Every structure is written in C-alpha cells, then in structure tokens.
C-alpha cells in the first residue's frame, strides 16, 4: 500500500532540488557569462550625442549584441547561439565545460523529477531513494565543479578576446567582467552539495518513529512538521 509521507525536511529537500536544477539549466542556456567592453553608440549616423554604452555579453555557446537601425532610430538587442553545432564552440575548454555542465544538469533534472514522487515512494530496490538521490546530486556537483574550473581556461580564445580585449587570456578577464550566469552556476553548485547532504535529513524524517507509528495506525496520508 502506498503511504503519502510529507515532512518539512523532505519537502524542503524536494523544493531545493527543483530550484537547483532550474538554476543550473537557466545559467547554462544564458549568454551572460562574460560581459564585454562597453561600446558607446551614437544616434543617427554618428552626428548626434553619444548614447548609453552597450556591453555585449558572451556565453559558452551564445552571445548578445546590439544592432542599430539608423533609419528607424531604434536599437535591437539580438541574443542567440554563435555556434551552429558543438564543434563551433569558441574553445576546446568551453566544449569540455559544456559537456560537464550538461551531464551535471541532466543528473540534477532527473533527481528533481524523482524527488516529486518521494512522497509516495521512499525506497527503491530496498535502498532509500533519498540516499540514492543524494549520491547522484553529489556526483552532479563534481561534474559542475569540473566545468566551472575549465571555463576560465577558455578566456584566451579568439572569441573571448574580441569581447574582452587583447589582454584577455586563460584565467584573466581583460576588459570583461563576469555576468550573472556564472555566479548563478556557482551558487547552484554550492546548493547542489547542500542538497546532497540534506537528503540524509529527509530520509531520517520520513523513516522516524513517529511516521512508523502513524503507518501502524492505518493512516495513508502522513503530514509531520
């Protein structure tokens, strides 16, 4: 018989697992990893006063640039992939970063999906599903760390230099600054390991003596603080 067990710790772990997976996925898809040098723009063919400088952004495989429409006196920010396929990613280090991050994110998304069902299923093949998911989150965290370590090594590629100036090189930003996506990926990685540790607390909460007592009383829906 399926017993629906909901505790504060198990629900918190589930929510954190979902948040971490989405945070890493959004960061990976974003082009805001590097913020390039400011490029001042001029109005109407260069005869008007300078407009607010625009700083293009560069991601692992995408970029955002601004295109001016002189006749229409408007500007469009265009974002999209600069690489049509994997081999066109600007650096071999960034290719490795993409692989490690993609594997880690796939694991996190799988755990996030499974975590929703832990209210009904607490074990699989006689093993705690929380412990299994926690182990997978720890493995995903290691893949994410490898990707984030390799990413700065690609700052010396020609694509990054075109955004960050001639002084950009491996682990040196040049005229660029780090965008929100990079910090989001770091924060998500830290939360991944927190989730991995917290999964043990979720397992303890759902297998406590109080839960067992309510199961013995014949309750199918068990909610505990």
Automatic annotation (TrEMBL):
One of its GO terms (cellular component) is membrane. It comes from the Eukaryota. The keyword Methyltransferase does not apply. Keywords: Fertilization, Membrane, Transmembrane, Transmembrane helix. It is found in: Membrane. GO terms for biological process: single fertilization. InterPro entries: LHFPL (IPR019372). Belongs to the LHFP family. This is LHPL2 protein. It comes from Alaudala cheleensis (Asian short-toed lark). The lineage of its organism: Eukaryota, Metazoa, Chordata, Craniata, Vertebrata. The gene is Lhfpl2.
